[in-house]
Design a protein that fits this description.
This protein is mostly helical. It has helices at about 20-35, 45-50, 55-70, 90-110, 115-140, 150-160, 165-170, 175-195, 200-230, 240-260, 265, and strands at about 5-10, 275-280. It starts with a strand and ends with a strand. About 35% of the residues are buried.
């Protein structure tokens, strides 16, 4: 008698090079995202540049992934609506958490309208590109070789690792390290949403709103204090408490992601392009 094991995929012959293609795509995507010749003349900080104009490199990186997906005919990327809307109920906790952040933004006050517009545009582009790369292309490729948990962990670690490249802009190892840890923890929630809803769309929407809610307050603060900081030659290295704040902010979502993934192998089916393994 044959028993199907949902969490033990076996790659079909025509997908044997998919993981290699995804790895090369990750390198190309990273280079496209980081190298932005159209960024000249904008603020030196990441947040400042996102508030001053369209992030063309992020747009080009997303277009690159769409072309790759279409060329390779990957049907399990997740660019579809959730098969059942009932799965969206699991977003109740992240949604409440998100509302709290937007409430804080309202207390701080919005930045100029033009900056809000660019932030909305760029956070949407970044969410689409990053979700498609890590929770779509990379996770889908990993699932042809590995189970749900190993695939989720590797894709999440890669997502956090690419944020280490921000040290070239941030210039501080401690701040960059805190960002890497916080991004990794947030990435686990994004991939938990991907697994439990069987779609990238809810994660893309939440990712964009999450980034927007955090950046609105940061841009407002920088608009008031940025000139003073620049006049003093830049801010001093942040204290350990300040480095812990972004990690503490995402900790509840990280814990909730662990809850969502605790039975992932039982609630998620293998990708449509992967043949399930069988055990006698």
């Amino acid at each position: 008698m044959t028993q199907v094991i949902a969490d033990a995929p076996v790659a079909r012959p025509r997908f044997r090079f998919r993981l290699l293609i995804a790895a090369v795509a990750l390198v190309a995507w990273t280079l496209i995202t980081v190298f932005d010749p159209l960024r000249a003349g904008r603020a030196a900080t990441i947040v400042g540049s996102l508030a001053e104009g369209p992030a063309w490199s992020i747009l080009f990186a997303g277009v690159f992934l769409v072309i790759l997906m279409l060329a390779c005919r990957w049907r399990d990327i997740g660019l579809n609506l959730p098969p059942t809307l009932r799965s969206l109920k699991l977003l109740w906790f992240p949604a409440i958490y998100l509302l709290l952040f937007f409430a804080l933004d309202a207390l701080v006050g919005p930045p100029p309208l033009i900056q809000v517009g660019f932030l909305v545009l760029n956070t949407a582009l970044a969410a689409f590109s990053e979700e498609l790369m890590f929770r779509g292309v990379m996770y889908g490729a990993l699932r042809t070789r590995l189970g749900i948990w190993p695939s989720a962990i590797i894709a999440t670690l890669l997502f956090g690792a690419v944020h280490a490249l921000n040290i070239g802009v941030i210039g501080d190892i401690g701040t960059t390290g805190a960002q890497v840890v916080a991004a990794t923890m947030s990435g686990l929630l994004f991939i938990a949403i991907r697994v439990r809803t069987d779609s990238l769309v809810p994660g893309m929407v939440y990712h964009a709103l999450w980034d927007l809610s955090t950046l609105l307050a940061v841009v407002k603060v920088l608009s008031g204090d940025g000139a003073a900081a620049a006049g003093n030659g830049g801010a001093a290295s942040p204290s350990p408490v300040m480095l812990l704040l972004p990690i503490l902010f995402v900790l509840p979502n990280f814990i909730y992601a662990l809850v969502l993934l605790r039975r992932a192998g039982r609630v998620a089916s293998p990708p449509s392009d992967v043949a399930p393994a069988a055990a006698s």
